[in-house]
Amino acid sequence: MTQKNRALLVWIALLVIAFYAMNCAPKTSTSRLTTDDLQAITTEMADSLRSSEFLQERDGRSPEMIITIQSVQNLSSDLIPTSEQWYLVERVVDSLPVRELANSKNIRFVRAADKVRQARENQNVRLDYAGDRTSTHILTATYTSVVRTTAGNRTDAYYCEYSIVDRASGEVDWVDKFEFKREAFGLSWD
Fold first, then answer.
1. What is the DSSP annotation of 30-79?
2. Torsion, Cα of 85, 90, 91, 94 (10° steps)
3. pTM (two decimals)
4. How many Å apart are CA 150 and CA 7, to the nearest integer?
5. What's the rounded Cα separation, in Å, for the pair 41 and 105?
6. Domains and CATH numbers, the chain
7. Which of 23, 27, 121, 165 has an alpha carbon within 20 to 30 A of 127's alpha carbon?
8. Per residue in 3-56, pLDDT tens?
9. End-to-end CA gap in the chain
């Protein structure tokens, strides 16, 4: 075999390996919520709050606004344990974009009183944790989803709705819905 033929065979072998390597890349096999999805929500939420009429006049010198994370509701097709639902919302309000907004508008997000009481009873926090907290507003979160399934693919459209209600008047000060899609390919038992 000549040097030229050997080089041609090596070249063909490399092409075949490259072709198979590209087509054997792992495909997404789940359509559940991920941390990347949460990051997208936090950025959109901070932008939505920043541009809302509700916070337009506020700045760092405004009287402190205390927003209680009151309820989380999961109406999605995912079975998300209650503790994980609360974790998701706390991750959103504790994210950098939302924290920066809260600092610039003198806003503080706090847990609901029953969650703080439960944490104290379980001795997960100090007894004086969350002592000074007369809340002015209530935050609620609702997760919903729509599922579309074809032969080997699944697409979940998630909708995350957050609303902030004035505790004194009961008026909705801000509400917004954030949506994204997750796709999975292949059979679920693969």
1. --S--HHHHHHHHHHHHHHHHTSHHHHT--TTSPPEEEEEEEEEEESSS-
2. 170
3. 0.69
4. 45
5. 20
6. 30-185 (3.40.50)
7. 165
8. 766 766 666 766 666 555 555 544 444 555 566 667 778 888 889 999 999 999
9. 44
